[in-house]
User: What shape does this take?
Amino acid sequence: MEAVESIQALQMALSGLGPESHLNLIHHSDRGIQYCSHSYVKLLQDKDIKISMTENGDPLENAVAERINGIIKDEYLETYDIDNLKDAKGLLKAVVELYNSERPHMSISNFTPNTIHHSITKINTERLWKNYYRKQATIVNSTQD
Assistant: This one.
């Protein structure tokens, strides 16, 4: 798998953010080879974007990011038949816009991400959902007597 398309997608996403240089962004991904490639990581670092990756590919390690990806795939993209890359890019752009501007999010008091991101004043939020996942401790180099 090559990183070329992933880099193009990241550049497209970044171009829509405007000229602000200190957005305090975090890029979450699994450990796919395209996200670990030198070119992709360098682009993130050049833009001062924090890198978040799962340690072992477990999607529960960053449940919020995985939920976002799942919602986009399951609630939006799965219902369409896409015949070509141009249509896929157009649909994904529309879905991300809808997700960010119209869909209320329980993780931010049912505001939309754009409402929070573009607010001039600080908006106090709270998570309205519960996390029932408890990560199991991993014992490394345990000794048995």
